[in-house]
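Table S2 (text version). Query chain:
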Amino acid sequence: MDISDLAKRIAAGERRALARAITLVESGRADHRTQATALLNALPKDQQALRIGLSGTPGVGKSTFIEAFGMMLVGLGLRVAVLAVDPSSARSGGSILGDKTRMDRLSREAAAFIRPSPSQTHLGGVARRTREAVALCEAARFDVVLIETVGVGQSETVVAQMSDLFLLLLAPAGGDELQGVKRGIMEMADMILINKADGDLKPAATRTCADYAGALRLLRKRPQDPAGFPKATMVSAMTDFGLDTTWDDIQTLMTWRRENGFFDQTRADQSRYWFEQDVRAALLAQLDTPDAKQLMSQLGSAVATGAMDPTAAAAQMLSAMAVDLGLARVDPASDSP
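Corresponding structure-token output:
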């Protein structure tokens, strides 16, 4: 594969080259990982897209909202990329990857790009290589990158580590309004959008929006939020109600963060976070070597029969890995990092 040529084609905005590059970075093969690293280093770094993370419970209408919102952005002359993460089966490992069929209008737009990816075994609502896919979309000169998470619940906070803005979609009359003060995904949200605010659900959406607006006032104010944020508003992906207001609010928030230095600081903090995550992932990969697997099997059998305590077995395993890596001995029972 000609990495230099692929990088040039991505920078020229070729969708086929972008799709091929995302397939490359998502591959777990060692040779593909080497090529993916070279490709990411060869990409231009002069383009910054607005990264918008989006989560919500299953059935809340995330795909419908993204299509309606994306169509509005395309109508404004913007290029929009959608990275949708689908849950993978715990039994077969497969994913449906049907987001393009749910975004039929947007998928036909020349200024839009939709890429579904399997979550595989990665937790946090996003795929293992979603961050690299975002970088590829930025290099391809997209103005907005929408990152749709799996949609499983309150633990989907990893997307906040790769986005500039985090939207949380909720359904009207969805249940206990005290969910609004729970730690986790709620306190990570920059805006809460009550979807399906149309027809018979409009009154329920109004009440739900008021409940969450009150709940947000109980959360501790974050330094990166101007007055009035985070906020709860109503939208309807079916009638396009509230979409323009949502875009105006997004621009207001991002302009304030840029002017006050929070945008650049957040990007820097995210880069450090992903550096540490890649180091941890590389260390975990050491467990896949034949020697490590053999030792793990031996120690696992000893723990299963009661011959060794799990903590002592873990200490022996980590010490063996530390010797192989030329590091100091690691004691899992220690409180030190």
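Notes on Table S2: The chain is about 45% helix and 10% strand. The first strand starts at residue 50 and ends at 56.
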